[in-house]
Every structure is written in structure tokens, then in C-alpha cells.
Fold each of these.
Amino acid sequence: MSLLMMAVTVLGLSAQVTSDPTPLQEDSKDVKILFHADQGNKGLMGLPATAKVYAHTGACLSNGSNWVNAPAWGDNADKYQLTYVSENLWQLYIGDIREYYGITDPSVNVTRLAFVFRTADKSKEGKGDGNSDIFINVLDAGLQVAIESGLSGSIVTPSTGEVTFKVGTTKVADITLTVNGKEIGAVKASKLLTVSYTFPGAGSYEVKATATAGGQTVTDVKNFTFIEESKAENYPGGTPKMGPVRNADGSVTFCLGAPGKSSVMLIGAWNDYQADNKYMMKYQDVNGMRYFWITVDGLDNTGQYGYYFLVDGSLKVGDPYARLVLDPWNDKYITTDVYPDLPAYPFDKIEGVPLAVYQGNINDYDWKVKNFKGAAPSDLIIYELLFRDFTGTEGKANGNGTVRMAIEKIPYLKTLGVNAIEVLPINEFNGNISWGYNPNFYFAPDKAYGTPDDYKEFIDICHQNGMAVILDMVFNQSDGLHPWYQMYTPQNNPFYNVNAPHAYSVLNDWNQGFPMVQEQWKDVLEYWMTEYKFDGFRFDLVKGLGNNDSYANSGDAATNAYNQSRVDRMRELQKVVEAVNPNGYFINENLASAQEENAMAATGQLNWANINEAGCQFAMGYQSDSNLNPFYAPKDGSRLWGSTVSYLESHDEQRLAYKQNLYGESGVKGKIVNSLHRLGSAAAQMILAPGAHMIWQFSELGNYDNTKNSDGGNNTDPKTVRWSLLDNSNRRGLYDSYCELIAIRNGNPELFAETASFENNCAQSNWAGGRTMVSKAGNKELITVINPNIDKEITVTVNFSVKDNSAYQIVSKSYNSNPSFNASGNTVTVPANCYVSIGSMDVAGVENVWNDSASSALRVHREGNCIVVDHAGAPVEIFTVDGRKVATLPESGRFESGAGVYVVTNGKDTVKIVL
């Protein structure tokens, strides 16, 4: 690398650290690094002298390696501790650079030092502008010269005024300083030249220092751009539309909302990321909101163009409406099999800012299903899924699941029978390992799981298989890289609250009453439904979406009180969903009062209903607090019919099986058969009750991961991938129970409609004598009996409408259990921990469907996607679970089919099989 290249400062590098001596060389002795906490992101500004501040630091080498020999994050060793010098000035003692960083290879040189500063508890960080890492150049040995200015970057604005340049050398030399070739200062036989200079106006300026000593001459060059101010001019058509918009003539109009800002420049790949007054944006003020915009010609519709915004000459931010984002810190960990041809971040041009990517054809996916319509809201059986942990390396907790791997599992979900998939947030989030509740860019899919087309293909194939796809949306908070968070100081940020006005503060709390925040939310919903064809949304932490002044205080009581602004806000967002898709799903995680949730439900919104505590109690074998009657599951009951989505488990709740293994009754804890039977019985009480329900991934296999930390907070670490649970016959039996129960729901919607007669006796008091659920619609009848007892079989009295066993059949039961019923005697006998569902003959459409006794003469097994009849003693017929005959075979044979639950009968014996 040439000296000139090494000495040129990349646009926007932070001056947050200086060195003693300066310029800094690899062979400098007694090196000290000075950290100016009042520069950069100012994350450690104002700390007292008693604070403990540490450096996370590494060396950058001439072979291209960065952050070499950096310590583990949070290492509080003495060598990394800074000492207080004065207000906002801290010192780190390095001494010998190569020795400090452990660089022993003589073939490489240290070219830069990298830093992030932090408090001892890691709660606060000192970083560069835009939360970038901080670097300081290390020059080669010998005569060197370096320019320092009072500027944090290379941009000059009309408000900059006089700039003081300091030119330092490593040896006594004759020094000159020129601007665009004109000398502005000189000194003989010195190691320092100080010159004050005022840039005269808009344009580009080359500032060059030259040092000569002993017949050797060296130079350092810095380039500065004096930028103009933005001028007022209306957005084309008069109504600003934030984000990149491709126009009919092929040009692209970029627009950034930035109230209170004076100037914004668009900087992009089309001119090699150079600051140029040609790309100074115009602005339009609308109802107190300021929008900056510019139209760019000549962008290829298939090209990928990185860009960012330079705000007020100093703030570098990405586009809050970016459709794809390049992350300079985390993209390097995304492998090519996850995201082939991911554009490379241009580190040689820009550092420390997430880049938006404009690609005109990014949304040109060829949809196979163009107008999907899902199940009625009250008929939803939702599968909650986190791409990261749903697939990946079997037996490992690597968090490397992807969308493409999930596509391969769609047949599994189809067989399970769910009619909707709810994916945890996929908006570009901080880092690569996350649940997604820390979004930074709401319009861009996170690349850690795959490409935009991967997400679209997943949705398209789900639609082909009759499953809606619902996106979890986080409107309460964002992480710290959202451009609007970066653009303002906390005390003067109109988009965010300094302190959350409610009791559930998470990360950076959005100011919900600010008009541009709501404009963003409406655009976000429209975008994902239009461009990705999501069928609706689940809204996280709705209790935080009220206006600031709607909370009397930030206490629990005030947050949980009825809040009209939340009701109004969710209705306005619902209107956006309805405008795109009148059948779009709208689900709130509000967990509020019946009054508030019913006000939301009155317009067709659904509300989460948490029955985890009751489910855990039942699963563990405890009667107390085990009320699984869904009409009373929300804490104060009285919800409108069909307005809730109840769930035994979710990403926020502990696994039932985990609590069984740790705290279960003696007949449950460590007893896999009893434990799994109780999990199936809990599922029956939820699924066979009217209304929408949700299953958290792998509940159907009895997953036993610990999802909570010791303090009760969520354990968001990657979880072990356990598809091998399917190889256990008892867990496969639980999965089969889920398939059967969901098939009953899907095949008999009239039994779960509001017009059906439904009697539910699954309250806490229903224990020793059993629990019952009875649904009737016309001549159809479904009777479910659950035995909560751990160690005894019970006989329960129920009222069969027809006193004749031949009018009924067992349509689902706990795996490998043998319940029985006597319709004429109105009794059902159920083994301990188990459930049985008995339907009239038209419920499943095939007599004696679940007579899967081991003594059956009918022997059937599964091979891949084939049903294999080994022996039947007579010709066999194969039916789908809803009674449709799909094949007739001789006494033995094979039938190839798609995923699903099938019934095989030889007229005497009947078995079910799941493909």
C-alpha cells in the first residue's frame, strides 16, 4: 500500500480518538490513546471521574485482517482500562503497539487500531458517528506527515467557519500546506505547522501537506467538500412519498423525512460514494413535517446501488425505507449458501453506516398464487415459527436456520394441518442472531435467514398449501441503528421518547403521537402486504402504542388501564390492512382489559389470550390454577365470541414440557408417557374449543427447551434443533394427536361456529371426575373427555344424543391408549392423563377411524411418501381424514400420496397413518 493511500482519510472517519505521539507510527514508543467522549455517538459523554471505562480494541494489519487479537467482549482486564484525564477525556496506555496487540509476524504491519469504548457493565458504549467502530491510522516507520483538522469528517458547511489545520511530522522537517495547489502556510525546521483557513464556498478542495527532511519528501492529502444548503421545492406531484420510487421515465426519486433538518445530500454508488452538490436534495414542508427529495437518472433497473444520506453535513444515516440493507458489522458472517451474491459493503469508500440498496426489480417475483384467501379468523390454527431455530444443524444450538430450510418443512406443517404460519419479526434487525424484536429497518427483510425471493417463495408455497402467513410486527421500539434514532440527540428527537411513558420500556421507545411515525407504520403494513403478500400481522406489545399523554404515569396500573388512544390507533392501522386485503388478519398482543380488547374486537381484530399458566399447571399434574376453559382464559374473561387467539405456549412463555420435567408431580416428572399424554390432553382442551388458537414451534413434539432466564426474562439464545424427536414413538404419537385434533377442526367448521352448541367443562374445578367438551351442530356431535388424574382411569357420564354405539366413533385419542364409550349408558372411560374425542359418524366420515389397536390384523407402515399395506386379509380402502376415498388396494400394496393424515380400512379393522 502506498504512503498516499495509507494517509488519505476515508469520507467520514471519526476524529474521536487522538494519539500521543502524533502522527502515530508502528515503532512509536510510550503510545497513549486519547478518547474524546464528547465526540462520535457521545455514548459515554459526561461520565464521572470514578467511572470504569474499558476499551474493546484490536489491530488492523497490512494483510487485510481486522480486529486482530481483540479480547472477548466484556473483558475487564487492567490492560484495557482507561484512566480519567479531564471532563470527557480518557486515556488508554498502549506502550509498544506490536507488543500490546501481540503481533509477532514480521511480514505484516499494523495499519490501524480499532476501538469501541464501554462501561464495565457493558451498558453504555462510546463509538463513532452512526455507532460505527473507531479507527486511528498507524503509519510506517521513518519520516511521516499527517494532517489533523477540527472537523469530524470531510464535509464543510456554511456554518463551519474557520478551520484549524495541524500538520505534524515524525521528524524535524520543512512543512508546507496547500489548498487546491495554493500555499496557505509553511514553516521551516519544525515538527508542527498550525494554519487557520476558511473555505470560500461550495466546491471540492484538496488539502495537501508536504514535509521535507534529509532529502526525503512525504505528503498527506485530505479532500473536503463544501456543500450547499437544501432549497425548498415541491416533491413531484406535490405529495411526498418516503423511500425510493421508480418513475415512469426510469428515473428514481429518493425521499427522506427529516423534520428540523436544514440539508440532506444523497450519496451513492453511482458516483463512487463521493459527496457532490449535484445530489443535494430539495425539501418540502407538509403540515409541519419536512421531506427531502431528489430524482436521479440513469440507474439500471437490474443494478444494485448502495446509498446513504448525509444530514446537515455531518450525520451519515441509512434510509428508513430501504428495501435491502448492507450491514458493515454483521454481513460478513452471512454465508453464500444463505444469501448468494450478497452485495459487498464498500469498505474502501465508506465506513460506519448501514447502506440502503436500491434495486429496481427487487420486487419482481413471479407469484404462483396471486389472490390467496385464508381461513375465517375464528377458524385459525396458527403455527408460530422462528426461522432461526425451526431448522438448522440437527442437535446443535447454532441458530443457523434459514428460509430455504423452512421451505423444505412446509409438507410437515401441511400434514400437521395448521392453516396459518406466524413468523417472528424478519425486519432487518441488529446482529444476525436474534428473535427480531430489535428492528432497525422496517422495510428490509433480514438477510441472516435468506434473500427477499426466499421469503416470497416461502409465502407463495405456504399459500399453495392452503396456509396463510402472518408477520409479527414490532411498533413499540427499535434498536439504535434506525436512521431517525441516529439523526437527533435523545433530548431533541421527535420520533422517540427519552423515557417510555408506559411500564413496558424496551430498547428505544417510539413516540406514537408523532405524525411521521404513524406514516411509517402505515407504509410498512401496506408494503409487506403488497410486495410480499403477507396475509396480516400480529402486533407486538400493543400496550406501548398509546399516545404519550394517554398514560397517567409509567406504572403498571396506568399502562394496563383502558386506553382509548390505543383503540383508535389500532383501528387506523386496521384500515390500512383492510384497504390492501379486506380479509387481512389483525392480531394484537395487548393482554389488556376486556373493555379495551372488546373495543378492538368489535371491528374484527383478534387479541392474544395467554393460557400458558393454566396449561403448565395441568401438564404438571396440579389442579390449582388449571382453568383451560378458553372463555375464561383471559384474566378477566368476558371476551367477544371468536375474538381471541389462545395459546398454551409462545415465544414469550415457558415450555410445558420443561416445567413438567422440573416441577411436575411425581407421576409426571420424568415419566415420558404420562408427560406426553398430558401435553396431548392440554392441546385437546385448547384446539377443540371454538376460536383461533396458536401453537409455538415444536409444541407438537413436546419440546422441552428452557425458554426463560433465571430472572424470568426471555432466553433468546439459539435453541437446539431437535427434529430427531420425531424418531421417538411417543413424541410421534403426540404429533399424531395434534394432526388428528386439527383435522377435526378443519373438517368440521360448523362444530366450532358461533351458531354451534358448545358446552365446556374444563375449569379448575373439573378434575377428579374428569373434564368434558361437547359441541353440536345439526346432527353432528363431538364429545371430548379428558382425564386429569395422574394414576387412575375414570368413567365419566356424558349425554350422547343417540343411545347407540354404532352412531359414534373415536376420532382422536391419546397415543397408544385404549379409551371406550357406551352411548346407551352415557359413559366414557378414559385412562389416566389421556383424552378421547368421540364423534358422530359424519364427523370423520369413516367408521371406527382410530381403532389402531396393536392386535389389528391390518398391518400398515410408512415409507417416505408412500402408504405400504403389508397384510390386510381383504382389499383395503384409503381415505383422507375428512372421509374422501383416495385409493383401493388389494390385500397388500403401495399408495403414493402427499403429506396428510390418512385412514386405511379393510372393512373390519381401521388404522390411521401420517405422511
Note: Confidence is low (pLDDT under 50) at residues 1-14, 845-855.
Amino acid sequence: MVRRIITSLIFPMLALWCQAQTAVSGSVLDKGTNEPVAGASVIVKGTDGKIKKFATTDAQGKFAMAPASTTAGGRLEVNMMGYARQSLLLDSIEIPVIIFLEAGTIQLKEVAVKADRIRQQGDTITYNVGSFAQQQDRSIGDVLKRMPGIDVAKSGKIQYQGEDINKFYIEGSDLLGGKYGIATNGINHDDVGAVEVMENHQPMQVLSGISFSDKAAINLKLKNKAKATWTFHGDAAGGYAWQPEGAVWDAELFAIAVMPSFQNITTFRTNNTGENLSSSGTDFFADRRETGLTRYVSIDLPGVPSLSDKRTLFNRSFLVSTNSLWKFGSGEFKTNIDYSFNRVTADARNITTYFLDNGNRVVTENRSGTEHTHSLSGKFIYELNHKTAYINNTLRTNIDWDDVDLTTTGSIPSGQSARLPDYYLSNKFKMIKRFRGSHLVTFQSTNEWESLPQTLTLDMAGDNGTAISEHISDHAFYTHESAAYAFTLKGITVSLEAGIKGYLRSMDSDVSGLSDLSYMSDNFTNIVNTDYVTVYATPKLEYWVRRVNLTLNLPVSYAHYTFNKAIANRDEAYFSPSFSLNWKPNNRFSGALRSGIGRAPMNLNLIHPGLIMTNYRTLKAGTEEFYNSSSQNLTANVNYKHTRSGLFANGMVMQTWSHVPYTMAQQLYEDYVVYSYADARNDSKTFMAMGNIGKTLDFMRGSCNVNGSFNRNESHMLSESQTVNSVSRSWSIGGKINGSPARWLSFDYAIDFANSQLVMNSTRNSWLSQMTNELDLTIIPYRKWQLTVSGEHYRNELTEGNYKNMFMLDTKITYQLNRRIELAASLTNVLDTRSYNYTTYSQLSSYESQRQLRGRQLLFSITLRK
């Protein structure tokens, strides 16, 4: 009887308790399109109005929450920017629930859960794109710049917590490799639901748990509407510019397809509005070319200091890029093909007045130049990336043409013309096999070839003057073959890599028309071979204990150098150990300490017995000795983040010491400068510190950032046989803030201030400062209309107390015809500032400089989206 009574009491109580502990799950859909809504905030509130549980919908619009302490009488609320809030009684719905959101507005105060914007799960940080986007944003790069902890350069390069990322994925696939700037500047932010940052990301699955990575990767999570289909958007703009006077254009076509077994991004861009497109194809992950060739000839067009390209660049630019990825079987094949063309013109006028007792001497110099740059690159990759095997073969080719023509008139007239093609081809193969769980075998093969011919033609006094011609032929081949074995035992990974490197290089140069410069040297011809063979071994020890990773590298090598009688052959041994410690006590804090010492050979390009002319008044002499340099370095950095509060901070301190037994020497011969190298102790030190703090400002859907840096460098050289010791110091501080304090208003503001000083032989120059202010205001008077006003202020200190101020103003008005078509009109450089002029004075002379700027520019544009 008692048992029945107890049972009759317990079962109803259990039923009530289970009802109160019901897990809440379901889906959130757009009522108009029936498509999933990603990134929506789903909150369970109790009868007291307090939050009991919360979640965010995934890319499929789904959510699930573990049982709360009680749900009886509570409410389920769903919030998403751009939609009206939904609030349902939990007792009145069936689980799983389907919730439909209607388009509408939402008050900012209702978005109160900070985790809606940024959330963390393990080593993955997820940013909700919709909560950071503003009305004027176009690309995902525009939104990434507002996410604390993430920094995006104008080229599209991304850093997380002050470090370069090591991968950029789109839906988990590495389509673009290091050329992800095409994606950050091209993908429409409205097609991206979330941005994932994967900390300590190891790209090669076969190394997971064996080799530590302190780098982060970015992954774009697309919305369903952008998956399994082609998505297009295009812009076409035309108008008129007052300087350079004539028609201007700016056009872009961007297409992307993200499918289960295929991805593609193809883009076409062209403009003459001051945007150099060549940086869009930069490979941020590219390794340094081991061929080691660098151009001797150097002709630079006149530039304008401290102003952005859109104010100073007179260009005609063109870019086409197509990138594809096919998944088949257990691997994938990728192709990246790019072609870019840039035509840049520049003009400058300088007047130097020397104050002399017998009358002033005025020297004028008017420089006018044109540069044509063509670049064609292709990369073809096969990759298999599994937990037990990794195979990668990358075939890469680059063909570049760079032609520069620079004419100087005035007191010392001259004409310079350079033809600078570059041909490069490489193939890199890597295979890693993991067996018995903790053993690895690795094979690598790298082969590179490069040809860098250079031609310099000079006319030293107009059409009837002296003609000088220089031809340089420079070719190199590099090969590297290696094998490695590694195993892991109780948190300790031991590996040994051994290999051989070979290098063949030939360079010859000849100058004609320099007979009148025989007082400098009688040798203007070079025929040089610089070859070497290196064998090496690299033991490596990696130890994992709790949340600490210790890594010790002990590379040792032996090299044999031959120089075909240019200098004596050499045999050298090198040892360059390094140590690193990474500590991550929790998901909020991490720190690292790195140090190393090393001994390395000199730059082999410095070995040439004869003089080489680099431009119309500069020549370089090579070394007659083989030198080795030594160095030490010590770096420490710390990172902190609190994702719930949207706080990210990082700092870094670095000290380096270098010891070089030679230094650069400068000698003047009438109008010419000759640089050479001389035996001299040349010890230098560099200290650098930088820090960055970023924070979300949820009350106005914004964020802020403060950064600072300090740098001190010591260096030495010889000038006119006199030792010149220089110490440069610089520091900078900057800040950014953005937000949308009202539905109809958003803003972006940035300020940067920098100060620098140069001390030469204990003679202190004045500290000189630079300051830049940038402000963008976007006003939305009506939901289809948008007005943007942008202003820039530049304040440059030319000499102590002598400042040059410059104000620039732009405006743009946009009309949203419908969801797919947008019309706009923009007016750039409203004040029509056409030149950047300044004058500086000293006790003995005055210097006046004039540079041209892009004048007022009117553009009408149309944007189409699919």
C-alpha cells in the first residue's frame, strides 16, 4: 500500500520535472522567402524575465539548447537585425518549433546578448557578420575591418591578434591560397552569414597532435542563398575628371560558385580612378624565392609623401583572375590564374636655391615619368589532406614585364629608360605519411628557375647628349631535396630532417658610353658565377606538457661555394638553433617566447668585380670578399580575449642584434654617387614594441580599436671615408571607432599620429610628426536613399614647427532601386585640390617641391546583383 502511494506521488512529480526540463530546438525561417535565417539570436526567458538559455542559429537556421532549470510559463524570443522580434509562450508551442521572421526594424536596445555578435566554442571564434555590417558596406572585407581582433589591410591581407593568418577558407575549402585578397575585396558581405577564426590551426591534418601551430585561420560561412549556385555582382561607373582632364571609369564583375565538389571565383576589374589593382593578386602565403635574384636597375617615379593612392595615382589598371577548385575522390585540384596591367604616370617639380655671397644659384628639376607593368601568373595544385596522408604538388609560373621611362628637364637634363622583365618557374612536391598513429615520414622536392634580364638606357643631355646603355643578364636555378622522420611518445615529438640543396647562378653585365667616367673605374663589365652545394640536418624536439608547448630546432649545415675566380672559393659550416615556448593556460589568454641565434652567408648578389649602374647618377660596386653575418633575436608576445564582452588585446616586444663584418660606403664623383662595401665592424640593434586593443560597442552596433608602436634602430655606413653612425627612433599611436548610433546614421573614424627622429654621429635632428584623420558619415534619410560624406585631414611636419595641412572631401549619394539594382553618383575631391606644394628652408638653401594630385572627379554608377 505504501509503495503504491509513493509511486503515485513520484511519477507525477517526475513528469512535471521532465516537462520543465524540456530541451528547446527548432528552425528559424524568413517568412517572405522561406529560407533559413543564420545568426539569429534565440533566447529562453523565465517567468521572472531573466535569461535562462540562449543560442544562435546555424547556417541552416537551426538551433538547439540543453534543458534549462525551468521552462514552464517562460517565453522563447528570437531576434535578428532586419527582422521584427518574435516572442512565443513555451507552453503553447511544440518542440521542435518552426519560427517565421518577418522583415522589419528592431531597436538597438533589444540586441542585448553580446554573444550574438561574437561567440566561442573551443578554439573557434565565430563573428556574426550581420551584427557588424553597416548599410554602406559592400565586401566582406569592409565588415572584417570592424571585427575586434581582426585587422584587414587595403590589399586585403588579414591579421588576427597581430599575426598573419595561415589559411583562408570558403566553406572549409582553400580555393585561393594566399591570394585571398580577391575574396575579401570581392565577396558581398550579404552572402556571408558568419566568419570563423580557428586558433592554433594546423592546415595539414596528418600533423594534428604532433606539430603545434600558433597561427589562426579564417573560414567564411556562406548563407544558403549563396551556396550551390552561381552568384554575380557587377559595377559600372563612368564620368569626368578635372585633373587629369578627361573621361574616367571604374568597372567590376565578380562571380562566385560554392558547391559540394566545385568552387570558383572569377573577377574582372578596370579603372583609371587611382586604384592600383596589382596588389589584388598578391600571394600572402608565398615563400621567399630561393633563386635570390633582385634587380640592380632601380628607377622610381616621383611620389607624394603621406597621401593615399586615390589622391596621387594617375593610372590605367586592369585585372582578370579566375580560380577553380575541383574535389574528386580523396583529393582536390586547384588552379589560380591572374593577369594584371597597370599604366602609371607621375610628374614633379623641384627648385633648390643655394644662398651664395656672389649671388644665389637656382637648380630646377622637372621630372615626368611613365611606368607600364604587366603580370601573368598561374598556380596549379593537387592536394590530398587526410589524417594519415598528405600530398601536395604545386606548379607555379610568373611572367612580369616592367617598363619605366623617366625624363628630367631643367638644370641637369637627362632621360632614363628601363626594361625589366622577370620569368619564374617552380615546382614543389611534399608527401607525408603517418603510420602506427604516431610515426611520420616526409619527403620534399623543390625546384626553381628564374631569369631576370635588365636594360637601362640613359640620355644625359637631351637628344644631342651622351647616350649610355647597360645590359644585365641574370639567371638562377635552385633545387632542394629532403627526407624526414618523426615520432611521438608521451607528449614528446622527435624529428630529424636531412637534405641537400644546390644553386647555380650566372650574371653578366656591360655598360657602353661611359668612357668619360674612367676616373671612377676602368671596369664596367661583369661575368660572374655564384654556385653552391649544401648538405644539412635539422634535429627537432617538441614537448607538450599540460597547456605548454616547447620546441627546439638545431639545424646544422655544410656549404661549398664556387665563384669562377670572381673571388676565392669557400667552405662554410652553419649552426642556427632556435627555441620557442607557447603557453595557453585557458581560452582567454596565450603567450609565446621565441629566441634564436644564427650564422648566415652574405647576399650573393653583392659579388661582382665591376661597377653596375642602377640609375642615371648612381653606381654600385660589388665586394671582393666573402662575408658571413651573425644574429640573435628575442621575441615575446601576449594575447588576451574575452569574447562575451567583445574584448581583444595583443602585444609584442622584439629585440634583434646583428653583426656584419662589412658596411656600405658612399663616395661622390662630381654628379655621381658610387656605393660599395668595405671591411668594417657593423653591429646593429633593433628594438620594436607594439600593442593593440579592440572592443565591441554593442549599444551602437559598433567597435573601437587603439594601437601603438615604438621602434629604435642603430646602423652604420661609410660616407666619403668617414664613419656615419645613425640612430632612428619612431613611435606611433592610432585609434578607430565605428558604429550606428541611430537607424539613419552610421560612421567610421580613424586617427593616426606618428613621430620620428634621426640622430647621425650624435647630431640630433628634430622630431618630425605626421597625423592623419579620416571620417566617413553615412546618412539614410529614407530606406532607399543613402548619403555618404568622407573627409581626410593630413598634417605633415616638414621641418621643426613647419607644418603642411591638407583637407580632402568626397561625397556619394546612392539610390536602391530594388534588391538587385543600385544607382549612385559620387563626387571625389570636392575642393578640387590639384597639387601638393611645400617649401623648406635652411641657413644655406631653400627647397621647393610641387607634386600633382588627382583633381575633382564626378562618377555615375550602377550596381547589379544576382
Note: The first helix runs from residue 2 to 20.
